[in-house]
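Forwarding the complex inputs:
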Amino acid sequence: MSTLTDTKKPADRPPTPDYPAPRYRRFLGVDRSNWIFWATIVILAVLVLAPVIPTLYQSILDKPLYDQGGNFTLENYGRLFTEANFGQVALNTLMFALLTTVLAIAIAVPMAIVVVRTNIPGRRVFGVAMQWPFFISSLILGFGWITMYGPAGFISVEIRRILGFLPWDLYTIPGMAITEAVALAPIAYVFCANALRNSDASLEGAAQTVGAGPFRILRSVIIPMMRPPVVYSSLLVFSMSLETLSIPLLYGQPVGINVFATFLYNNGLQSIDPDYGILGAASTIILAATVALVAVQAKLLKDAKRFVSVRGKATRPRLLDLGWLKWVSVVAIGFYVIFGALIPILGLVFRSFTKIFTPLQNPLLSITMNNYATIFQYPVYVQSIRNSLIVAGVGAILVSVLATVAVVVARRSSFRYRRLIEYLALAPNAMPGLIIGIGLFYAFALIPFGGASFIQGTIWAIIIGFGIRALPSAYGSLSPAVMQIGEELDQAMRVTGADWLRTFLRMLAKLLTPAFGAAIVLTFVIMLKEYSPAIFLGSADTNVIGTTMLELWVQGNTGSVAALATLQITITAVFVGVAGLLMRGKKDA
Amino acid sequence: MPDVVVTNLRKEYGGNTVLHEVSFTIKDGEFFTLLGPSGCGKSTTLGLIAGLDKPTSGSIEVGDVVFVSDRNRKFVPPEERNLGMVFQSYALWPHMTLSQNLAMALNIRKVPKVEQQRLIYDALDKVGLAHLIKRYPHQLSGGQQQRVALARALVYSPKVLLLDEPLSNLDAKLREQSRVWLKRLQADLGITTVYVTHDQEEALAMSDRIAVMSNGHMLQVASPNEIYERPATAEVAAFIGRSNFLDGTVVSASAGTATVRLEERGEIINVAVSGDAATGEAVTVAFRPEKIHLSQTGGSATPGSIVLDVDVIGTSYVGSRYEYDLKYGDRIIIAESTTGTVEGAAKLVIPADAARLYPRADVVSQDAAELMAVTR
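Prediction (whole assembly, two chains):
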């Protein structure tokens, strides 16, 4: 074998045609597929680490990190708790997050069980209705709640007139928690409902055969089975309410209740001379908390998969009959949907068409288009709508492309660090929007040779910030689609003579087109609703709908806020509707 | 077409060895089958030949081309190996017509369009599907898809054809017909073929040589006849066809014969051995149900036969023959016979050339052993 031998056989065999396998060129000893793997991991690492590293660095510097001559110090952390009263903030955040979690789970879990496993009327309607937060951001929900239930809200005024007093106060931690719970309950609901749908219905059938009634089955079979999804969705809701900005900003700000996000908002933005050390230290602590929570979630999710009994065979569960209790359930769910979401949103939409919105005067008398006129009169407001559309449009395409490549490399390559790619793509789940904003702000400031001016304050800064936030969702929506494509299809392509890149372009990309379209729709909607990274990254020219709404709200121009909110909801609904039609049309063809 | 030489091939997954230092050579034009139960390492071996996976150590060469070798850390990716492969799921690309499925390899190899059309037609014609050239895979039956997958693997005249359980998704009747057809096609083309299956009948019927695998080891590589008639180990005897096993101890040994005391009742028997047997060695005596004779009196015993006293505890008629369950001590022995009239106490005659001696091995699965215990 070490010597070269003449392998030419005698010419007696029939001349078989010879189509030799292709040779793929290698650049610096690495083939083109590997270059793509490396490019993907580098881009992801830069995107994820750009906001994090400067934040950690700033937290141990005694000067703004772009100033010369800063020294390392741990003083920032000390001052955070002494001067800045961060302890109280942490306590508020904890109480708010705990209360939100308890309330959200109390709404979501019974609802999931009742809708998925019992025969209440209108199950399908309720199932669809729980998707409302997809269209409506929690910022808009907050505006809606204040419009209806705030101290001067439409319903509050009426209640006060009847009772003589108002039995609730939104501007408290419980008030914040109730609204946030209403906003987050659908997320817990979707997770629990899916777990229930996936679980083997024959378990219940087995219970029935040994003579268990519906309540017995609920208590002994369904509820114990629900423990993993309930624990997981509790963690999810908890970590989301830990980082949320909208509701605490609208409710807590006026009365001085601060949580993590509003603390960053106040210290970074509201003060004339922001204390960067404190900002960095606070961001680091918050980041540590969210990262820890997301890590636990990931671990639980892996374990939960072992619990959920998935069968290939679709067993249609026999729905349990709750008797008279089903009407109680219907009323309870209806109450949540109508008073939690429908009335505030419809109220807000109605508000956008009126001058004054109070039960003391028939609102129909003050119907006006002025709120919309205000928005369309001022170029900055129009600009913000245009910006939002550009950010969401361009961002959705970029993020979906990046996510597609990342999923395929992570799931369908022999790249040594493919696992890391998945972790990187999902990491922004643990990064609050404000911290992404602050961190990118620092990161841009560190670009050498004055490169900062090319990106700082431009719409690209916003696209990057929002894109990082949307990346995990895009990845999560594409990942199952990739895993549904049999791996043997790739292998057949490889053996046939296609390298990884050609396999991707000629086959996977084509088969993934519908999932890619769905990812674009999803990321577009997410990025249209997003605003928190823009608070630090934006400039006067690069406001988006969300930041403009906040601005108008602070000015007291609630009519125009309502109008902008209505526009945002409308854009979302139209986009989703048109995209749905387009994709359906393609499927038929 | 060249030989495939596999040397000391080893594969670990996370510290778990699924393939232990396997070596074999597949000759030019040979139909070579990797046979074994699921998880035995046969598909791993095929994947390593195809290049879909990298071995932990060892080398694979085809002719004078080194595919993978740990000596110079060489690894040729699958796309540069010029092999043809048919997958268990067929893996036809669903968004392409048959013609496009077959054209892929030719496009990659930059074959001129006119020649492509001829080659695609020829390949589909060979599998009898030339009339469906414009169809999509989902418009075909399972059997047709399987043939398209074969055509796709052959259209560019690869050096070696790899088949990963290609018939296992077909229904029983079609599977038998496909077996004959596939074997004839392979013989006509003279292409070196590596075939993976867990179906022993398939392996026996089609192969030039079979490699029997178990737990990542290659137990025996030989022709179908030799594998069946002279299994190298008790495991092979258990896996290929059916065998009865009786445990015993060698009490004395001479050239060509070992005297064994059976554990069950202490009977002393003589068994022919090809190698040496050591006195005192724990052994297993194996014999196939169709090679033994059952009669009421044992009158048919030829000299040198082993004769055991058994009780008939059950007879079943399975179409072409009768099958007896015989109680021998605590053991159940299965015997086949053309008559179904033997009952009660009977004589079991094992001709001298039917019994084979192996080192003691646990060849009965846990499940089967438990079932036997229940039967008693």
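The mean pLDDT of chain A is 85.
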